[in-house]
């Protein structure tokens, strides 16, 4: 039973991260830049910051990275590993990365 609950939480985390990334992209398209934090997206793009299902309280982590941004859950260990999935089972964090690619020169 526990494995099913963890699997459902992992899927909820990835779904929430994708939903958050869509809101970030909508903000970026409207404003020409990434938001600084979740609060910049509320209430126009999100009703509230997406919750992390592995934490009793607190949103998913969002931060800009070189070339894009990352949205992630701290995962089953409830420890922020910087969005690293690691090599172990279970993975450290459940991350959704968006990398911006510069348009090709014409």
Mean pLDDT metric: 88
Shape: globular
**Quaternary form:** single chain
What is the count of β-strands? Answer: 3
Low-confidence stretches: none
Coarse structural class: alpha+beta
User: What's the gyration radius in Å?
Assistant: 15 Å
Strand content: 15-25%
Order of helices and strands: HEEE
Tally of helical runs: 1
Termini Cα gap: 55 Å
The tally of domains stands at 1
Question: How would you characterize the largest beta sheet?
Answer: 3 strands, antiparallel
Name the strands of the widest sheet in spatial order: 1-2-3
Relative helix content? 25-40%
Compact summary:
This protein is of the alpha+beta class.
Question: How would you characterize the overall build of this protein?
Answer:
It is a single chain. It contains 1 helix and 3 strands. The model has no long low-confidence stretch (mean pLDDT 88). A 3-stranded antiparallel sheet has the order 1-2-3. The protein is globular, with a radius of gyration of 15 Å. The chain has one domain. With 106 residues, the chain is of the alpha+beta class.
Ordered list of secondary-structure elements with their pairings:
Elements lengths: L1 H30 L29 E5 L2 E6 L20 E6 L7
Antiparallel strand pairs: 1-2, 2-3
Features:
alpha+beta; 106 residues
């Amino acid at each position: 039973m526990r494995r099913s609950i963890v699997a459902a939480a992992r899927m909820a985390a990835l779904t929430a991260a994708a939903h958050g990334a869509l809101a970030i992209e909508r903000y970026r398209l409207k404003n020409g830049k990434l938001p600084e934090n979740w609060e910049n997206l509320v209430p126009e793009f999100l009703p509230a910051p997406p919750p992390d299902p592995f934490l009793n309280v607190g949103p998913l982590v969002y931060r800009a990275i070189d070339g894009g941004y990352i949205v992630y859950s701290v995962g089953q260990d409830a420890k922020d590993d910087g969005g690293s999935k690691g090599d172990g089972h279970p993975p450290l964090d459940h991350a959704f990365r968006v990398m911006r690619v510069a348009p090709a020169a014409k």
